[in-house]
Specification:
The protein is globular and about 25 Å long. The chain has about 80 residues and is of the alpha+beta class. The longest helix has 13 residues. Strands 1-3-2 form a 3-stranded antiparallel sheet, covered by helices on one side.
């Protein structure tokens, strides 16, 4: 994994949850981005379209630990994260 790459951290149940996680992570000094939060605007409420939070690879473990401890949210590592 490249230390300067951007990787998937977690998939939220909805865009609001993703933005709450983003704000909490940024308050901890972890830069991140919500992706897919506006996709439902074009498709309506599509269950398979979920907002995701992405972080720099070098912040991944810290971000996972923070979400797990405070929000119970970090996804299991994906195969392409290794």
């Amino acid at each position: 994994m490249q230390s300067d790459g951007i990787v998937h951290l977690a998939t939220a149940n909805n865009p609001v949850e993703a933005h709450v996680w983003r704000q909490a992570l940024e308050d901890e000094g972890i830069s991140c981005q919500v992706v897919g939060d506006l996709l439902d605007a074009g498709f309506g409420d599509v269950g398979s379209v979920k907002a995701e939070v992405w972080v720099h690879a070098n912040d991944l473990e810290q971000a996972r630990a923070f979400l797990a401890a405070h929000h119970g949210a970090a996804d299991e590592p994906e195969a392409d994260d290794a």
